[in-house]
Amino acid sequence: MAALNMIDSTFEVDKLTYEIFSILENKFLFGYGNAENPKNSVPNSVHFQARDAKHAAGKVRILCIDGAGATDGILAAKSLAHLEACLRRKSGNPNARVAGYFDAVAGSGVGGILAALLFTRGRDGQPMFTADEALKFLTDNRRKISRRPGILRRVLRPAAKAEKLFRKTFGECTLKDTVKPVLIPCYDLVTRAPFVFSRADALEIDGYDFKMRDVCAATSADPSSVGPTEMRSIDGRTKIVAVDGGVAMNNPTAAAITHVLNNKHEFPFCNGVSDLLVLSLGNGESDFNAVKSPSGFVRIAGEGASDMVDQAVSMAFGDCRMSNYVRIQSNEIMAKGNKMKTCKTASDLLGVTEEMLGQKNVESVLFKGKKVAENTNLDKLELFGGELIKEQERRKTTILPTVVLKNASPSPRTSSATTLSTMSSSS
């Protein structure tokens, strides 16, 4: 229980959460840009210029992936495999990749590992893994990555196994070697605050560039079973003692949206949620009655926080939440029993996640909780895939850049949302 005590109410998780949701509330929930609210509105000339540019520039596409959940990341990986197959079928390109149809990705815990697999550049210049390959990677290595507690696992040092796996997979690749903007959170025990690994920040300051193998180890370090991971930036100046990103940000959707809306260097015409297409992937809901370990309590707390983020983001999207924001998550109420208990093999788990994708999608409704949608999770993925392809095709006919990927710069930038994070200690 000593490790669990590190995750108590003294953690200053509230600071980053407050700042993120303050931005969402001030700009999108309470009349920002509304003529009836002069205090929050912008001049008409600026408003119309931004609107004209917006329609020409299109929508920024964001992928967000939760921490482990009940399926250890397999539900999200399975969702992405289906989405990539849809993109290949509808685009007519048999080599289409998930990374080619999103402009930014955020992943926490095992979701951060998925983001790294799908968006880190390989030797051929393409992303290292296809979605199917990433799914196989997680199913084959689930026991090494999930790091479930137990006496035997402590003796076998699962942390060392995971770190060896990440070293073999990513080699010397760093955050700079990702093909698109990437955000992967952890919780830093040095500063007692969330820390977000960001490609945008890594390109500008060596003190924010880290090896991808260390990033994956940091965001997936379960504090209740194997303890924190100590790491340093590429230049050795920034030190982090990290635990699981799910402790501070199990659902990174709000952080990703805030980053994009404030990052005018890379997303110059993105002015509000109507300029976004966001896919948020959950990883199944745990059985609350089966919680018997510190790790289980941490997981359930993270899943509760994920639901809060989903509700808040749905509110921020308002009337356009049905078209511009899609959340994929299992529904335990509709599952008629917890089949996760019977999963003994990877094949069993894949079968259960397929059933989860066949469930009716559950949508958050403004001030009214949740409702069961007409479409299944698979239907939603198909429809969203179509929107991604439409945006891809639209960009071929306009001269305005929706995304301007940033290269290394000698001077720090102040527009990245990751500057909300407290800097880790330098030594």
TrEMBL record:
<keyword id="KW-1133">Transmembrane helix</keyword>
<feature type="transmembrane region" description="Helical">
    <location>
        <begin position="98"/>
        <end position="119"/>
    </location>
</feature>
<keyword id="KW-0443">Lipid metabolism</keyword>
<feature type="short sequence motif" description="DGA/G">
    <location>
        <begin position="244"/>
        <end position="246"/>
    </location>
</feature>
<keyword id="KW-0472">Membrane</keyword>
<keyword id="KW-0812">Transmembrane</keyword>
<feature type="region of interest" description="Disordered">
    <location>
        <begin position="408"/>
        <end position="427"/>
    </location>
</feature>
<dbReference type="InterPro" id="IPR016035">
    <property type="entry name" value="Acyl_Trfase/lysoPLipase"/>
</dbReference>
<dbReference type="InterPro" id="IPR002641">
    <property type="entry name" value="PNPLA_dom"/>
</dbReference>
<comment type="function">
    <text>Lipolytic acyl hydrolase (LAH).</text>
</comment>
<protein>
    <recommendedName>
        <fullName>Patatin</fullName>
        <ecNumber>3.1.1.-</ecNumber>
    </recommendedName>
</protein>
<keyword id="KW-0378">Hydrolase</keyword>
<dbReference type="Pfam" id="PF01734">
    <property type="entry name" value="Patatin"/>
</dbReference>
<feature type="domain" description="PNPLA">
    <location>
        <begin position="64"/>
        <end position="257"/>
    </location>
</feature>
<dbReference type="GO" id="GO:0016042">
    <property type="term" value="P:lipid catabolic process"/>
</dbReference>
<dbReference type="GO" id="GO:0016787">
    <property type="term" value="F:hydrolase activity"/>
</dbReference>
<keyword id="KW-0442">Lipid degradation</keyword>
<comment type="similarity">
    <text>Belongs to the patatin family.</text>
</comment>
